Amino acid sequence: MIIKDKIFTSFAVNDLQKAEDFYTEVLGLKLTKNKMGLLEIASGPGGRLIIYPKPDHTPASFTVLNFPVENIYEAVEALEKKGVKFEHYDGNIKTDEKGISRAEGRPSVAWFKDPSGNILSVIEE
Questions:
Q1: I need a surface site. Which of 30, 53, 72, 118 has the fewest CB within 10 A?
Q2: What are 11-32's pLDDT values in tens digits?
Q3: Backbone dihedral region of 70: left (phi > 0), alpha (psi from -120 to 50 degrees) or beta?
Q4: Would you list the domain boundaries of the chain?
Q5: CA distance to 32, 95, 111, 116, per residue, from 54 (Å)
Q6: What's residue 122's pLDDT?
Q7: Quick one: 14 exposed, middle or buried, by C-beta within 10 A (0-12, 13-18, 19+)?
Q8: The pLDDT value given to residue 88
Q9: Tens digits of per-residue pLDDT, 44-92?
Q10: How far apart, in whole angstroms, are the C-alpha atoms of residue 27 and residue 72?
Q11: Model-level pTM greater than 0.85?
């Protein structure tokens, strides 16, 4: 079969150093630089995320990375203390004053952006 069992994902940023600072200092992730100088985040057995520079980067209009958390309120509070601003929606998706969506039958989610405008979320397990 052409598909291997170790798959990975990637997304672009417009400034690799700002991304490295944000993902390590604000989000507390452990990054490594691969052989090509790109940022990598290990995710479970064999999984990984690659962050690469693209000077003319245009952020996607959808969530590119989700972080499962045990308590969404505590996660939002902790990230706000580090300067993260949460998105607020009042359409098909509605968020409260903290930026948390608590739709019935769905997990609670709060969205925020990285320095390149990529949409990320914390989602309560």
A1: 30
A2: 999 999 999 999 999 999 999 9
A3: alpha
A4: 8-124
A5: 18, 31, 23, 10
A6: 96
A7: middle
A8: 97
A9: 776 789 999 999 999 999 999 999 999 999 999 999 999 999 999 999 9
A10: 14
A11: yes
Cβ contacts of 77 within 8 Å, gap of 6 or more: none
d(CA 113, CA 46): 26
Contact yes or no for 49/8 (Cβ under 8 A)? yes
H or E segment and range at residue 16: helix 16-21
Q: What integer is the mean pLDDT of 30-41?
A: 89
**Residue 19: which H helix or E strand, with range?**
helix 16-21
- Give the helix ranges, DSSP H, for 33-102: 72-81
Q: Is the pLDDT of residue 2 over 90?
A: no
Rounded CA gap, 51 and 13, in Å?
A: 7
CATH number for the domain running over 8-124: 3.10.180.10
